[in-house]
Specification:
Length: about 325
């Protein structure tokens, strides 16, 4: 075999760029120990596999790397020349692996999560408090936005996951149902006497406080009104769900909210009624398709599920 083919800056020649990390480790092991048997044991390889790796490497480099006798194994001149290159390549690869693992570990210890504003106000603080008590070293950023904005942030990688009611099916998004939900009626316990289970026609009997028409939940309400041929008497329309609940408490009318947002009602003297013909939908977690979740996200998701379960209707 000829001498090692290398260029002036001691890099591997183009025709040798199909070298394997396994071959390099095998070569460096034999170069260090000068014994095939001991090297095979150290690398947890069979001696046949080690010899094959060295032979493949020498064939690719078109040179002998070792002088072999029955009692002696030593580097050739080409072997000594290649040893420095192999050591540098292996060291850089191993350093890169360590850095990547550290980067991924750091990323896994940081979460950027999205919630709709109602939940961000009324549910997230207690969830976050519980999570941080058990995982103080995990950094979490909370983004509160409308559902369509959260969906866009997940698509672009701006946040790791988002929680809410997402009715728009979007390619490239994985959607996990974490809690069944429905529409419920909220009313003043002092101004109105309303049964815990009602027909949709009850909405014709009282002024109705609506929330912004841009909220997807309102599309469900409008569809239900149309289905049951209900003619409502809108009292006013407000932008925030909690405003609607506050107005309902004072007896200005009744309102309809998603059951997953019933935590809002804890602050107000209001009653909650279910509809006999319920409108069902799912509260979900969405992530970008192909993006791996991690233990921290799964733990936080379970806390969200537990919190929503606390406010589930009996």
């Amino acid at each position: 075999m000829g001498a090692l083919n290398s260029n002036s800056n001691n890099t591997i020649a183009p025709n040798a760029m199909n070298l394997h990390f396994r071959q390099l480790k095998a070569f460096l092991g034999v170069a260090e120990i000068s014994n095939f048997t001991k090297t095979a044991q150290k690398l947890h390889m069979s001696q046949a596999a080690l010899s094959s790796a060295i032979r493949e490497l020498e064939n690719q480099l078109d040179c002998n790397l070792f002088e072999r006798t029955t009692r002696h194994v030593a580097l050739t001149e080409s072997g000594r020349q290649f040893q420095q290159t192999a050591m540098r390549v292996v060291r850089e690869l191993e350093d890169s692996v360590v850095q990547l693992r550290e980067t991924n570990r750091h990323r896994a210890s940081e979460l950027r999560l999205g919630f709709t504003p109602t939940l961000a106000i009324h549910a997230v603080p207690s969830i976050l408090e519980t999570f941080k008590a058990n995982h103080p070293h995990v950094g979490i950023d909370i983004v509160d936005e409308a559902p369509h904005r959260l969906l866009k942030l997940v698509e672009t990688g701006g946040i790791d996951a988002a929680f809410g009611a997402f009715f728009q099916k979007t390619s490239g998004i994985d959607q996990l149902s974490i809690s069944p939900s429905t529409l419920v009626l909220v009313h003043s316990t002092q101004e109105y006497s309303i049964d815990p289970l009602v027909k949709w026609s009850v909405l014709e009997e009282h002024p109705l406080i609506l929330t912004s028409g841009t909220m997807p939940i309102q599309n469900l309400l409008q569809a239900a009104l149309k289905k049951h041929n209900i003619q409502v008497k809108p009292f006013m329309a407000v932008n925030h769900l909690e405003t609607a609940v506050a107005l309902a408490e004072k007896g200005f009318g009744i309102t309809v909210i998603p059951s997953f947002a019933m935590a809002v009602c804890q602050r107000y003297a209001v009653g909650i009624a279910r509809f006999q013909s319920p409108v069902r939908f799912d509260f979900c977690r969405i992530v970008k398709m192909g993006k791996e979740t991690n233990d921290n996200l799964e733990l936080f998701t379970q806390l969200v599920i537990d919190r929503l379960h606390q406010h589930r209707l009996p």
